[in-house]
Amino acid sequence: MFRICCGERTEHVVSVVVEDSRPIESSPRSGKSIDSPAVTPEKEEKTPWWYKLFGRMPSQQKKEQNVDNDQTNNTKNTKKKPKMPLWFSKRRCQVSPAQEENTPKKQCLHTLIQKKVKGLVVPKEEVDTKTEEDKKVIQDPKEAASTNIIGKHRRLEQFRNLGFPNPAQNCYMNACLQSLLTMEDFVNSINSQEQVWRSIPEAQLLRSFMEVKKSYFSQDKRMKVKLLTAFKTAVSVHAPEFRDFSQKDAHEFLTSVLEQVRSFTPKLRLMATSMGKTYKCPVESNTMFKMENTRTCKGCGAKSIREEVFTSLSLDLIPGHGTLEEMLINYLKQTDLEYQCKCGSILSGQRSSFTTLPNVLVLHLKRFSFTPTYRLIKVCDPVHLNRDLVVSSNEPFQGGCCYSLVSVINHMGTTAERGHYICDGIDPDVKPEDPTDRWFTYDDALVTKTSGASVCNNRQKSAYVLFYKKIC
Fold it and tell me: Going along 157-229, which residue ranges are E strands?
């Protein structure tokens, strides 16, 4: 039985007690006796075989003695620390070490990670001039990046919930709603004036529209069907042709919705005045524009100017493969018109021009026409869709403006009697000039990701209503 003193190493001799009564002999090979005054090690040291045969060299013994003396002196100079049990030391190794002060290298690394997420370049001077709030963000760049992405691209993660169910041939209404919801300024204008239109019963259309907007990200299809039915009922109050469940024209439905929203303006302005506020019509602020029609007699040169208000512009298709710019030029160029003038001439020329330009220019392509026998047919001639469009006006201070395509309502089908409406719209979280070019295709409840370039290439034969947003 051995007794070993635990704790601090000392110079006291540890006694060895042997219960066996046999005499203790020295080992002839090692040259050391068992009762030598040395502390028994916890783990037996391996002795090389050449030491066992020839013994240790004197120089080697001196080196070992010097090492033992150095270790003893170092132990005396250190403070006394209690020896921890083995189980505690193993567990302690699993705990992360204490956080060290940020060196310039570490700060630079975290700053680069954070700036890389934002897509920025980091100057060296910025590393040492960080505030406390910046350092907190830098300490966990992954968490900050994930928070940014979730907040900024919410539609991308939840795009499957953005569709609208179609229980009874309501695809024309769903496509129009998706295009209207893509117009952020239009939606925000209605939402910001809720206190005014909430108090008027006639503004049920605005209330039902905002209810549909609030349920946009919902997964509850039954609730969406209920809200869509309420919206259609509100439109049918002043447009009974949309009351039944038969297929309708998407452009006619869109025009009816915009005109009804505009018709509430006088009452809402009176209500806003009584409340000490002002009311701005969302249609007038976003999609309404004025056109000037000038008629000139070819006999005497007399002119007649008439101004009209539009919420969309209907363009004739060019046979073959025309561009949108050519169609717009054909609409604005002078055409011959039969008109009886006072001078006796019956021929006049008429030219149209923009007096004002809207924030969102809605262009309707005339894909449906009547044959000489009055049969309705669909015109499937392809149209080259311009991603950007420059439009000029007569107003001297406004001049020309650049527009970018943000939404398209498509009629899928080759005949006028049968077909299906879908919508392609840009992600409102992405600006039109953003290089990511992220769009969504809304086919009732089915929503898929696409791009603006793909829309312009694949919708040349099906594009029906185009939405261009002013970007300058």
Answer: none
Q: If DSSP codes are grouped into helix, strand and coil, which group holds residue 246?
A: coil
- The Cα–Cα gap between 186 and 251 comes to 18
pLDDT cut 90: percent of the chain above it: 48
Q: Are 238 and 163 in contact (CB under 8 A)?
A: no
Residues 241, 228: Cα–Cα separation, whole Å: 17
CA 6, 7, 11, 17: dihedral to nearest 10 degrees?
-10
How far is 440 from 430, CA to CA, in rounded Å? 12
Q: Give helix 171-182 / helix 221-238 axis angle, nearest 10°.
A: 90
Cα–Cα distance between 199 and 271 in angstroms, integer?
A: 8
Cβ-contact 360, 468 below 8 angstroms: yes
Delimit the domains of the chain by residue range.
Answer: 112-146, 170-286
Q: Are 154 and 398 in contact (CB under 8 A)?
A: no
Concatenate the DSSP letters of all residues of 351-379 into one string. EEEESS--SEEEEEE--EEE-TT--EEE-
How many CA atoms, within 13 angstroms, populate the side-chain half-sphere of residue 198? 8
φ/ψ (deg, to 5) at 303: -115, 150
pLDDT band at 92 (very low <50, low <70, confident <90, very high): very low
347-354 and 335-338 strand pairing: antiparallel
Q: What is the pTM of this model?
A: 0.67
Provide mean pLDDT across the span 278-302.
92
Burial of 117 per CB tally in 10 Å (0-12, 13-18, 19+): middle
Is residue 2 within 8 A of residue 44, CB to CB? The reply is no
What CA–CA distance (Å, rounded) separates 453 from 424? 11
Q: In this predicted structure, which of 49-53, 58-62, 298-302 has the lowest mean pLDDT?
A: 58-62
pLDDT for the residue 202: 84
Q: Please tell me the distance from the alpha carbon of residue 315 to that of residue 324, in angstroms, as a whole number.
A: 9
Cα(28)–Cα(148) distance, integer angstroms: 78
Report how far residue 230's alpha carbon sits from residue 24's, in angstroms, rounded to the nearest whole number.
107
195-205 pLDDT per residue, tens: 999 988 888 99
The dihedral through the CA atoms of 183, 428, 162, 411 has a sign that is positive
